[in-house]
From TrEMBL:
InterPro entries: AmpC-like, Beta-lactam-related, Beta-lactam/transpept-like. The keyword Membrane applies. It is found in: Membrane. Residues 21-255 form the Beta-lactamase-related domain. Pfam families: Beta-lactamase. This is Beta-lactamase-related domain-containing protein. It comes from the Bacteria. Its main location: membrane. GO terms for cellular component: membrane. Keywords: Membrane.
Length: 258
């Protein structure tokens, strides 16, 4: 049965790739059993490197799942409370509205700006990025709404959550994820991408310009801190998915809250 399903999935993917020039990797699992894992297209067109199930990709906003989990792990340990004002964790910065809580950041209800919009030069800068650069850029930006009033997607909110993780844990965000999530789950091909650091096995990014494939624009990955800076593989993401159901990282009560 599973072999038949795998064939159907592969046939669909072959058709999809031929129609839309898809390039990437897939993994389909059911009840803990992997039905198919396979790469399609090229990780590097210019070097003719094919994608496999072990090819690393930027997972972009799926990063937020790991940031949120880290916050909840710290809450379980009694090191923070999601109902706390974020100003409790930024004593050196007075620009943040005291009404904004960690919960607001987690649920995109803080009223903070989106972050990755046009007119945001920090994202494309090749200079060394510091947290102060981000705080200074946003310090005079008005809230989009009152905290808790409505939902507004905010990458900046998750940037701040990663800063809170560092302030509370006493170690870097990258190190916290490595020690508390990636290593315990044996996610050996997952990590945080940093500016000017080459990640072996990471797929190149391309996009369609009319009918031509061209390289993605440069992005300073340090600016996507906490909101989009993780790379992974489909095999590692299966390990992450399983952990969300079996209580490997936090209690069922916390999982239900998430």
């Amino acid at each position: 049965m599973n072999s038949l399903l795998a064939t159907k999935i592969n046939d669909f993917m072959e058709l999809y790739c031929n129609t839309w020039a898809f390039s990437g990797s897939i993994l389909v699992a059911k009840k803990g059993e992997t039905i198919i894992k396979k790469g399609y297209g090229k990780a590097s067109i210019e070097h003719s490197v094919s994608n496999t199930s072990l090819t690393k990709f930027r997972i972009c906003s799926i990063t937020k799942q790991f940031t949120a989990m880290s916050v909840m792990m710290l809450q379980e340990k009694g090191l923070l409370d999601v109902n706390d004002s974020i100003t409790n964790y930024f004593p050196e910065f007075h620009q943040f509205d005291k009404r904004i809580t960690i919960h607001h950041l987690l649920t995109h209800t803080s009223g903070l700006q989106y972050l990755f919009r046009e007119g945001f030069p920090i994202l494309y800068s090749k200079s060394k990025h510091k947290h102060e650069n981000m705080f200074n850029f946003f310090k005079d930006k008005p809230l989009l709404c009152e905290p808790g009033e409505k939902w507004n997607y905010s990458n900046y909110g998750y940037y701040l959550l990663a800063c809170i993780i560092e302030n509370v844990s006493g170690i870097s965000y990258d190190e916290f994820l490595k020690k508390n999530i990636f290593e315990p789950l044996n996610m050996e091909n997952t990590g945080n991408e940093r500016n000017k650091v080459i990640v072996p096995g990471l797929a190149n990014g391309y996009y369609l310009n009319n009918n031509d494939l061209i390289h993605n624009d440069y992005v300073n990955m340090d600016v996507t801190f906490g909101s989009g800076d993780i790379y992974s593989t489909v095999e590692d993401m299966l390990l992450w998915d399983r952990a969300l159901y079996n209580g490997e990282l936090v209690s069922k009560t916390t999982l239900d809250t998430i």
